[in-house]
């Protein structure tokens, strides 16, 4: 009996000593505290992403008097971040594949934080637009966090952990109006020459801090093991796995992996940035997964079009509705959304025009309610994704967007 145990131990040691695939190595390293901490960091990054993208929706109504903004100006300000994200989405993926996932996340979030701070003290409308454009360009790199998180986790927990990211986004959407509710109604006013600093400026600064803080915390974490191995950096990949193992087990004495199987080919540096960017973009739609990529992009386009329209314009539209109800109270004074959108403008050429940049208190509360309405889905998906599959929930994503929109419409019909 002892001889059989001894033989099994020798066979096990022999198998561990052989080179293994990265997925097997991640499985052997195990699952523990490091992965939960990584989920917290990446989830917080996703919440910071929500802060950065949707914070401008509160800036639009509260800064309209400072910049004499008409509805067109407000639309440009809301669209600046989206244009920056559209441009950055083509670039950060290539940077993540050529420079590293962690590198792309750190640089992109620092860019978002720095330009958000600059935008908070902008005194000129074109400067504000440029800063929001660059902030959107930077924050689009936060989508790399899905790759960064997923490449540390074994197949058993990967889908569930990636789905847990949604609850952090929802938490950010709920927390943002709470922060705005505390800061923006403050009436302090700091003036020095042409420089003006009000509550909305402070709100933008506060919203920029999470990106900078989380970028610093990412510096203390290792690079993705999959990226390191794809570049042929065998020893650095082993060190990365040892880092994870030590975090989970407080020691590396029993570290089970001694050698990894290198991929058939490693990614070489391109002849130039633009050429590499072009090749990586074209490769996405010429690979064997091109059909899946196209369908995914279409679904994502449809869902985000509805979602961002709702989140970016909701405070402004709700504020206009409350303004109209206050000014034209009475049962016969009915209107529709198109009239509400077109009637409220800032006319800077009228000297006697009194601008109103107050946000009704009910606006903050209603946005919190919308965020809370998203919590059930955010909890259901990770709990049942392994049983029902990703395709089931992915196809239901459009239903979720429609459900939120219907909830908003019904809320205003019956209140």
Describe this structure in words.
The protein has 415 residues and is an all-alpha fold. The protein is built from 20 helices and 2 strands. The chain has helices at 2-17, 22-29, 33-54, 56-62, 71-98, 101-120, 125-139, 145-150, 155-163, 165-183, 199-219, 225-230, 234-249, 273-286, 290-327, 337-343, 361-373, 375-388, 390-395, 397-413, and strands spanning 190-192, 195-197. Strand 1 (190-192) and strand 2 (195-197) form a beta hairpin. Helix 3 crosses helix 10, helix 5 packs parallel to helix 7 (125-139) and helix 15 (290-327) packs parallel to helix 20. Mean pLDDT is 79; it is low at 5-15, 346-353 and 401-415.
- Helix % is over 70%
Query: How large, in whole angstroms, is the Cα Rg?
Result: 25 Å
Low-confidence stretches: 5-15, 346-353, 401-415
Total count of helical runs of at least 4 residues: 20
List the helices and strands and how they pair.
Blueprint: H1 2-17, H2 22-29, H3 33-54, H4 56-62, H5 71-98, H6 101-120, H7 125-139, H8 145-150, H9 155-163, H10 165-183, E1 190-192, E2 195-197, H11 199-219, H12 225-230, H13 234-249, H14 273-286, H15 290-327, H16 337-343, H17 361-373, H18 375-388, H19 390-395, H20 397-413
Antiparallel strand pairs: 1-2
Helix pairs in contact: 3-10, 3-11, 4-15, 5-6, 5-7, 5-14, 6-7, 6-11, 9-18, 10-11, 10-17, 15-20
């Amino acid at each position: 009996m002892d001889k059989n145990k001894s033989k099994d131990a020798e066979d096990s040691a022999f198998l561990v000593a052989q080179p293994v695939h990265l997925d097997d190595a991640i499985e052997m390293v195990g699952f523990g505290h490091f992965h939960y901490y990584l989920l917290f960091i990446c989830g917080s990054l996703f919440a910071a992403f929500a802060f950065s993208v949707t914070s401008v929706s509160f800036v639009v109504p509260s800064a309209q008097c400072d910049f004499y903004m008409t509805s067109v100006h407000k639309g440009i300000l809301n669209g600046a971040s989206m244009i920056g994200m559209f441009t950055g989405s083509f670039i950060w993926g290539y940077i993540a594949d050529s420079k590293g996932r962690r590198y792309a996340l750190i640089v992109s979030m620092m860019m978002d934080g720095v330009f958000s701070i600059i935008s908070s003290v902008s005194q000129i409308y074109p400067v504000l637009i440029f800063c929001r454009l660059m902030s959107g360009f930077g924050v689009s790199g936060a989508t790399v966090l899905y790759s960064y998180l997923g490449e540390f986790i074994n197949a058993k927990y990967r889908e569930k952990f990636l789905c847990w990211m949604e609850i952090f986004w929802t938490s950010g959407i709920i927390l943002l109006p709470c922060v705005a509710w505390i800061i923006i109604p403050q009436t302090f006013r700091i003036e020095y020459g042409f420089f003006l600093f009000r509550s909305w400026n402070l709100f933008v600064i506060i919203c920029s801090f999470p990106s900078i803080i989380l970028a610093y915390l990412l510096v203390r974490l290792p690079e993705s093991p999959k990226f390191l191995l794809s570049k042929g950096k065998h020893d650095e990949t082993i060190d990365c796995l040892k880092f994870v193992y030590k975090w989970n087990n407080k020691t590396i004495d029993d570290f089970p992996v001694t050698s990894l199987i290198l991929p058939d080919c490693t990614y070489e540096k391109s002849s130039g940035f633009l050429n590499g960017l072009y090749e990586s973009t074209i490769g996405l739609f010429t690979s064997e997964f091109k059909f899946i990529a196209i369908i995914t992009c279409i679904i994502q386009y449809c869902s985000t079009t509805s979602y961002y329209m709702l989140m970016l314009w909701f405070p402004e539209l709700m504020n206009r509705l409350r303004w109209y109800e206050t000014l034209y109270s009475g049962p016969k004074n009915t209107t529709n959304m198109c009239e509400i959108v077109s009637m409220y403008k800032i006319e800077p050429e009228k000297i006697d025009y009194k601008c109103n940049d107050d946000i009704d208190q009910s606006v903050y509360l209603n946005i919190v309610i919308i965020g809370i309405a998203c919590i059930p889905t955010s909890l259901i998906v990770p709990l049942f994704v392994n049983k029902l599959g990703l395709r089931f929930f992915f196809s239901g994503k459009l239903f979720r967007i429609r459900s939120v929109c219907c909830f908003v419409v019904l809320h205003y019909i019956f209140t």
